[in-house]
Amino acid sequence: MVNSNQGDILNRIIKNDHLAISRAITLVESGDDINDKLFSGIYPHTHNTIKLGITGPPGAGKSTLTDQLIRLYLNQNKSVGVIAVDPSSPFSGGALLGDRVRMNNYLWNDNVFIRSMGSKGNLGGLNKKAQEAGDILAASGKDIVIYETVGVGQGEHDIAKAADLTIVLLVPESGDDIQLMKAGLIEIADLFVVNKSDRNGSEKLVQSIYSVLHIFKNKDNFEPPVFKVSADRGDGVEDLFNGIGNFLNNKDHELYLENKKISRYKDRVFNIIQNRLIDSFWTNSNIEKLELTINDLKISESSPYQIAEKLLNTK
Ligand SMILES: Nc1nc2c(ncn2[C@@H]2O[C@H](COP(=O)(O)OP(=O)(O)O)[C@@H](O)[C@H]2O)c(=O)[nH]1
Ligand SMILES: [Mg+2]
Questions:
Q1: Within this chain, do residues 50 and 100 fall inside the same structural domain, yes or no?
Q2: How far apart are CA 79 and CA 33, in angstroms?
Q3: Which of 114, 156, 163, 221 has the smallest CB count inside 10 Å?
Q4: Which ligand neighbours the alpha carbon of 202 most closely?
Q5: What is the rounded CA–CA span in Å between residue 280 and residue 258?
Q6: How do residues 135-147 score in pLDDT, each as one tens digit?
Q7: What is the extent of the structural domain holding 48?
Q8: How much is the pLDDT for 50?
Q9: CA 95, CA 100: separation in Å to the nearest integer?
Q10: Whether residues 170 and 299 fall in one domain
């Protein structure tokens, strides 16, 4: 079934058929084997799309801001795909309802495709799947792909790294500069946004960010700009929108952006090989061996290293 439909689904994706896109993303999510082939077909069509990552704490306004950016891109006759990744429970908070409402706004619009990806599987897997879903959207001709991810741990940051430009969104209540450093946000941010600037403390947060940035210039030695917005009112959003364009078109950033692409590519090859090796190792027989070894032995007797060594060396 898979093979006969593959060419068809590929053609439909390239023609921006949203139903086919949706199906393909479901296939990617399920981890089906057809990915590889479908993928190689899609890949050549993915290169003209700009990928933005928006990360920040839950409730910071990522979806609200994404919605504003969609509006601004549509005004420029551009098309947008959104992959919203929420590694926490999809049932937590009220965000999902908000997302639903926003998704429905564009249900019949060929220029906007929004998809949530849940937390099934591990984060590493989610990262890969989100990137592939982004590629499917790119192949459909979307000018912009936005990854919205909850930035609370390291794994989620990988998704942000999948973007050409990563926006770190913070709100006055998200804490102080120490937390910024701890969370490793300095390292991934190309651009900071302080949202909910209608609330107290936003100017103080902007100043904290500046002072931290000053001390910890990122490795490429440019200081990410900081934008103050109120996403739900739309205040400052246009400045940010222009700031994104300026960042991407800045000649000084060309090499940086190119290097990012290359290292992203390497990471993907690395991960594919890693996953293949893991899959090929954990055959039923090896899983069984592990179970048997563990059943035979009191786990206080051999270290996990010894058992791993034994499994790696038996054929
Ligand atoms: N006061 C205020 N509330 C906002 C602003 N932007 C978003 N919100 C609200 O914050 C809540 C969480 O927004 P959402 O976009 O779902 O956050 P996400 O979890 O980061 O995607 C919603 O109730 C929004 O209406 C803002 O600029 N000011
Ligand atoms: Mg959201």
A1: yes
A2: 29
A3: 221
A4: 1
A5: 33
A6: 999 999 999 999 9
A7: 43-253
A8: 96
A9: 9
A10: no
Q: What is the pLDDT of residues 43-68, one digit of tens each?
A: 999 999 999 999 888 888 998 999 99
Atom number, ligand 1, closest to the C-alpha of residue 67: 15
Q: What is the CATH number of the domain that holds 57?
A: 3.40.50.300
Cβ of 239 less than 6 Å from ligand 1: no
- Ligand 2 centre to CA of 304 (Å) is 40
| pLDDT digit string, tens, across residues 223-253 | 899 999 999 999 999 999 999 999 999 999 9
Residues 6+ apart with CB under 8 A from 35: 27, 28, 132
Q: How many C-beta atoms surround the C-beta of residue 100 within 10 A? A: 12
How confident is the model over 4-26, as pLDDT tens digits?
566 689 999 999 999 999 999 98
In this structure, the answer to whether residues 290 and 244 fall within a common structural domain is no
Asked if residue 215 belongs to a domain, the reply is yes
List the residue whose alpha carbon is closest to atom 24 of ligand 1.
Answer: 61
Pocket test for ligand 1, best of 54, 62, 63, 64 (most atoms within 8 A of CB): 64
The backbone torsions φ and ψ at residue 145, rounded to the nearest 5 degrees and listed phi first, read -120, 130
